[in-house]
């Protein structure tokens, strides 16, 4: 595809703001960089977080979606005939399909003391490499773009085809090329006379010194720092020791490029330590500091809560220092961070008219539905606090994200695990249910932080808070929300009410109404009261007994909804909560199209809230570039939804306060992604389409009236762990000791 062909894809992706991006400027605040200007965004191999590193698509998309002064990075490698090509590694097998074209090569070379096996760039002439194409080198990223046959580019190709505002050449192995009678020095000097090079970096002092007098003064020379114990080949000193002599560095470079953990060290438990003074010391010496290794799809320190914008802000807007540039595989995110999210007050003007509804409080940071999660949600900017109501065996309503205590508590490590049973009626196997324990028994347990992506992706949430916080009765939750002046309302979710009434003799509806009445909510108008359920009979019951706002939860992904169905919903509800997958259809992790679900519901004057927004990059289709803010913006800007339901209220709050939403012409990185744009590039290589989501019909919505509340079975609640008979219970799931051991072992393995 030509440059202009890809540009049309970009316009589809980000319409209508491509040109606007070229007019946007960074925040008009003096920065704590060496120059006082905004930090530079350096696109590592282009937009290599999505497309194969150093490919034409990667470079063109980086230029088209980033700040107007974006600098594209090229790792320069030399071919056998001395041509300079952009490749992220001198070894070709992990970044190209060379083994498919030329077969496997078992030869080995020693490069800076490290043995590399396989094909190297010096094994081929430039002509021979025309048959070799680039592939995605990070296996966790989409491999579908490998089929686009993206050719290896020379430095001149990158400049001619992507027209970057800035160019950064990184020279990694000058000494090795010299051993093979190839001169990187001569190549770089020659190239600098034909194209404008803004930055040249290298980890080899000898190379930087050799070109210093032959390169334009407008080209910055940057000393790349490797691992602290790695040895610099010219001086035979470690990079760690060289950093202690920054005055020496000023004799051959104007800046340093360091891995980000040189600035914010991370401990063995993946938490940040105190920042170092490297940036301040380098600035005092007159050196700029560029930080590397930024990627949205990397595992971040827990302090950032899987939020790459929060990470960038800690390097550029922390009140103490700012690095002079960041090297990123996802340049759209630092671009938006610099222009839209930096120097932003926590109480800044709200630019987006969209509500933030917590999901079990700030459950991405603390165990859901605990006092800590709710206090954090208030601090983070949630408008509406949610409480998924469960009922204890002695009739106490409290907040917990699941009727099964195994999902949100440490009950598996307690003696109560002996009460694990199957309940086919509500579709749970081996559960320890809230209705089988008294409130006092539940209080002996500890909350457990739920990490939804731990099992499949080994992505965990804040382990330090794994069992912190206290469970909250509904009355305590209501008091907390009432005392939070920034909170505009509460959302109380009621599920399984029919089962609890019929089989357990527990009246969830009355329990909620009584708690609201006793908490004084019926005598005030300052706080909104929303009642949510996926059971229309529950909402009908509340409607007949109160005047609260009623919210119908569509608990499945749908692709459409009938007008007759909406009429049924409108009879019982003022608003609807739908899943993200019901708004934008996803196929093989690519956005396919948008549905008419939101528009149709809004046409019936129903507010539409969308769930569930999370920071973890695996929760987002490829189209959103592993950036939760791009996802939030797309749902808000395309659909004009009424609210986000999120595990991370802080992210949604930062999004709706960002200044770029208030620009007359929004920059391209603050325009929504239109579905189908990326898929159009790879559609032919995708597996067969997944089965379509169903259409929501009236029969899916209409439920029979709630049954009367039966007498409470006496044997359902134990007076102590393991007490009571097993008669009238579902079958016991397992022996306590065996299950406890299994879960302890399983947690270790995870």
Account of the 3D structure:
The protein is elongated and about 90 Å long. Helix 1 crosses helix 3. It has 28 helices and 28 strands. It is α/β, with parallel strands linked by helices and 750 residues long. Strands 13-27-26-23-21-20-19-14-15-18 form a 10-stranded mixed β-sheet. An 8-stranded parallel beta barrel has the order 1-2-7-8-9-10-11-12, surrounded by 4 helices. Strands 4-5 form a two-stranded antiparallel sheet. The N terminus and C terminus are likely disordered.
Quickly describe the structure:
The chain is of the alpha/beta class and 750 residues long.
Quaternary state, please? single chain
Distance between the termini: 44 Å
What is the 3D shape? elongated
SS class: alpha/beta
Q: What does the radius of gyration come to?
A: 29 Å
Runs in which pLDDT lies below 50 for 5 or more consecutive residues are 1-5, 15-27, 719-750
What is the helical fraction, as a range of percent? Answer: 25-40%
Count the helices. How many?
A: 28
Strand order of the largest sheet: 13-27-26-23-21-20-19-14-15-18
- Per DSSP E runs of 2 or more residues, the count of β-strands stands at 28
Biggest sheet, open or closed, and with what strands and sense? 10 strands, mixed
Strand content: 15-25%
Mean pLDDT across the residues is 91
């Amino acid at each position: 595809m030509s440059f202009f062909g890809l540009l049309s894809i970009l316009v589809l992706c980000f319409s209508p703001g491509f040109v606007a991006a070229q007019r946007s400027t960074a925040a008009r605040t003096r920065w704590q960089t060496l120059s006082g200007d905004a930090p530079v965004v350096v696109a590592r191999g282009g937009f290599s977080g999505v497309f194969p590193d150093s490919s034409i698509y990667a470079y063109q998309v980086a230029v088209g979606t980033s700040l107007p002064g974006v600098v594209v990075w090229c790792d320069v490698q030399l071919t056998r005939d001395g041509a300079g090509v952009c490749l992220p590694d001198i070894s070709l097998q992990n970044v190209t399909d060379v083994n498919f074209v030329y077969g496997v090569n078992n030869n080995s070379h020693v490069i800076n003391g490290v043995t590399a096996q396989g094909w190297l760039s010096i094994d081929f002439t430039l002509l021979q490499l025309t048959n070799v194409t680039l592939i995605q080198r990070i296996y966790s990223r989409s491999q579908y773009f490998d089929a686009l046959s993206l050719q290896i580019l020379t430095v001149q190709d990158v400049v001619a085809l992507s027209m970057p505002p800035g160019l950064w050449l990184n020279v990694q192995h000058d000494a090795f090329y010299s051993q093979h009678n190839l001169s990187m020095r001569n190549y770089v000097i020659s190239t600098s006379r034909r194209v404008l090079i803004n930055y040249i970096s290298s980890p080899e002092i000898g190379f930087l010194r050799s070109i210093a007098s032959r390169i334009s003064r407008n080209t910055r020379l940057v000393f790349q720092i490797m691992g602290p114990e790695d040895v610099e080949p010219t001086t035979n000193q470690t990079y760690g020791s060289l950093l202690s002599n920054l005055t020496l560095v000023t004799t051959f470079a104007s800046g340093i490029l360091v891995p980000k953990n040189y600035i914010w060290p991370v401990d063995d438990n993946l938490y940040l330590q105190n920042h170092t003074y490297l940036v301040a010391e380098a600035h005092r010496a007159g050196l700029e500091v560029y930080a590397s290794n930024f990627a949205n799809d990397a595992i971040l320190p827990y302090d950032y809560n899987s939020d790459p914008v929060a990470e960038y802000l800690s390097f550029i807007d922390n009140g103490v220092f700012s690095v002079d540039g960041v090297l990123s595989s996802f340049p759209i995110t630092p671009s938006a961070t610099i222009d839209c999210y930096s120097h932003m007050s926590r109480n800044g003007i709200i630019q987006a008219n969209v509500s933030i509804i917590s999901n079990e409080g700030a459950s991405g940071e603390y165990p859901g539905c605990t006092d800590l999660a709710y206090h954090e949600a208030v601090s983070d900017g949630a408008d509406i606090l949610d409480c998924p109501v469960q009922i204890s065996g002695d009739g106490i309503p409290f907040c917990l994200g699941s009727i099964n205590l195994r999902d949100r508590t440490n009950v598996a490590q307690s003696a109560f695990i002996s009460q694990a049973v199957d309940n086919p009626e509500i579709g749970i196997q081996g559960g320890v249910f809230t209705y089988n324990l008294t409130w006092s028994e539940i209080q002996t347990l500890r909350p457990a932080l739920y990490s939804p992506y731990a099992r499949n992706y080994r992505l965990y949430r804040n382990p330090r808070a794994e069992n912190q916080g206290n469970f909250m009765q509904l009355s305590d939750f209501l008091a907390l929300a009432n005392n939070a002046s920034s909170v505009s309302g509460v959302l109380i979710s009621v599920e399984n009410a029919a089962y609890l009434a019929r089989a357990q003799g527990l009246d969830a509806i009355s329990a909620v109404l009584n708690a609201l009445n006793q908490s004084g909510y019926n005598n005030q108008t300052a706080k909104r009261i929303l009642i949510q359920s996926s059971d229309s009979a529950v909402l009908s019951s509340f409607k007949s007994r109160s005047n609260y706002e009623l919210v119908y939860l569509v608990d499945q992904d749908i692709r459409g909804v009938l007008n007759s169905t909406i009429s049924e919903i409108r009879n019982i509800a003022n608003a609807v909560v739908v899943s993200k997958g019901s708004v934008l259809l996803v196929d093989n992790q690519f956005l396919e199209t948008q549905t008419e679900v939101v528009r149709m519901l809004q046409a019936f004057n129903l507010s539409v809230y969308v769930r569930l927004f999370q920071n973890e990059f695996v929760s987002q289709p490829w189209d959103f570039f592993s950036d939760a803010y791009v996802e939030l913006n797309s749902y808000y800007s395309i659909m004009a939804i009424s609210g986000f339901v999120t595990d991370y209220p802080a992210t949604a709050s930062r999004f709706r306060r960002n200044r770029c939403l208030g620009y007359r012409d929004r920059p391209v990185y603050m325009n929504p992604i239109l579905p189908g744009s990326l898929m159009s590039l790879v559609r032919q290589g995708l597996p067969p389409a997944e089965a379509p989501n169903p259409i929501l019909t009236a029969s899916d919505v209409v439920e029979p009236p709630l049954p009367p509340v039966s007498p409470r079975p006496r044997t359902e609640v134990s007076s102590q762990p393991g007490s009571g008979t097993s008669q009238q219970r579902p079958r016991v799931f397992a022996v306590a000791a065996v299950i406890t051991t299994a879960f302890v072992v399983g947690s270790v393995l995870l």
